Amino acid sequence: MKRIFAALLVSLAATAATAAPDLEKGKEIAETICIACHAADGNSGIAIYPRLAGQHAAYTAKHAKDIRDRVRTWSLAESMVAMVETMTDEDIDNVSAFYEKQVSLAGEADAANLKAGELIYRGGIAEQKVPACMACHGPNGAGIPAASAAKDGVLAYPRISGQHKDYVVAQMQAFRSGERVHNMMAPVATRLTDQQIDDVANYIQGLR
Ligand code: HEC
Ligand code: HEC
Question: In angstroms, what is the span from residue 89 Cα to ligand 1's centroid?
Fold first, then answer.
């Protein structure tokens, strides 16, 4: 019995050891698979493909696995499934760690409604009980990594700076409709009007 227990411990230790991400393998996956839509450095130039550069690895890994496993099915997720279907958890952890190390570049915001978006991002809208996005996503949109977010029962507060406006709008609509279930984002999204979502998403696209 003791020996079986010892063997179990050894195999657990081996699993933990292999869990350290391999950035070289991650890079290879980014450059052969993800590149088609998200770009090799994660700064996709196409609005429907979210930017992954600088995103917290824990967040990227969870969402890539959820898309692979058809748990994340809202919006355009289905179009990615075939690309990741055969990938292991380890592959996804590796490529997520690689993308976390890439520098996120901001897009360009439309100057017209920039101020309105900035006010929502930085101050929220008190009369609609909308909290400032900054409170959770950080003053420059870098989010909060997994290690510090864990105390709130959150995997990571995702980086949203520089994210494509169209993608942000699509996610806000998914939070609002309930297709994308999240206890923190649902109340935020449901209290914003379409115009306010447009304003704040434009601001986020230009944020760095
Ligand atoms: C054929 C295009 C395509 C390829 C290739 C692709 N994806 Fe995606 N990916 C998408 C689309 C489209 C979305 C947006 C889904 C949505 O609308 O919600 C997405 C979303 C994501 C998200 C969610 C981002 C977020 O901010 O929540 C992650 C993570 C992701 N992809 C990781 C990857 C990784 C890692 C690879 C390579 C192994 C990859 N994708 C390959 C199309 C693709
Ligand atoms: C109380 C904390 C909190 C506040 C306030 C908050 N968020 Fe979030 N937000 C989160 C968390 C946590 C997630 C990650 C959800 C998940 O894991 O699926 C998230 C996810 C998102 C996403 C999806 C990112 C992606 O890559 O798919 C967008 C877009 C977003 N938030 C925008 C906003 C905007 C805009 C505001 C302000 C109007 C805001 N958030 C306010 C906590 C917050």
Answer: 15
Task: Give the pLDDT confidence of 172-196 residue by residue, as tens digits.
Answer: 999 999 999 999 999 999 999 999 9
> Residue 106's pLDDT is what?
87
Pocket test for ligand 1, best of 41, 43, 69, 80 (most atoms within 8 A of CB): 80
Is residue 157 within 8 A of residue 137, CB to CB? The reply is yes
Location of structure tokens 């900054």? 134
Point out the ligand 2 atom lying closest to the alpha carbon of residue 130.
38
| Closest atom, ligand 1, to C-alpha of 34 | 37
Taking CA atoms, 21 is separated from 4, 41, 60, 127, 154, in Å, by 29, 17, 13, 45, 21
Torsion of CA 21, 23, 29, 31, to 10 degrees: 160
Query: Which one of the ligands is nearest to 205 CA?
Result: 2
C-alpha angle 164-104-178 in degrees, rounded to nearest 5: 40
